[in-house]
Amino acid sequence: MRLLLVEDDSLLADSLVNRLTREGFVVDHTPSAATAFALGAQEDYRIIVLDLGLPDGNGLDVLAQLREKRLNMPVLILTARGGWQDKVNGLKAGADDYLAKPFQAEELVARLHALIRRSEGRVRSNLIVGDYQLDETRQRVKTPDGKDHTLTGTEFRLLRCLMSRPGQLFSKDELIEQLYNLDDSPSGNTIEAYVRRIRKILGQHAITTHRGQGYSFDGAQ
Ligand code: CA
User: Fold this and answer.
1) Per-residue CA distances from 19 to 25, 71, 84, 162 (Å)
2) pTM for this model (two decimals)
3) In angstroms, what is the span from residue 160 Cα to ligand 1's centroid?
């Protein structure tokens, strides 16, 4: 899941990048309002965490510009403690949730998962396709034989991406975009290697190869 973090407090940003990466997000970070708008318009983010007071502008303007371009990914704004006016203005400008600083990283993560679930039309925290269950908080997958398997970070992100839209064809380029941030540049072969590893866990048929086009998760056994 690609996530854009817009925050100019570098200490807070560094700790959030670490935490969110451990939670399975693929994070791009910028302290700049202008870069935030450019990235938000260009990259395929599942969610944006947006600070309001930025050195080159206001996060609310970034939000308004993104919504004007009909970009509808969930946006959580970070507001100053007690800044109720910011909250109201943020929600009016198209934010989906807010969190007042200082906050616990755990609460931020829980809210992000809830926002993404809602945007995907789900109420439960497990992704279920056929007899496969992906536990997002523990980053484990349950196979039809009832066994629980631990996944590495990349295996989890790849499987989560495929299972979040069952039956949908993802090209290798689309998967790379969801799995890696702007600083990484893996090749299509990397995706093939990870699909092979996941098939060792799930069996050969859960993921379908569409020759020359990409992959889809169909959940067959
Ligand atoms: Ca700030």
Assistant:
1) 9, 26, 27, 23
2) 0.87
3) 31
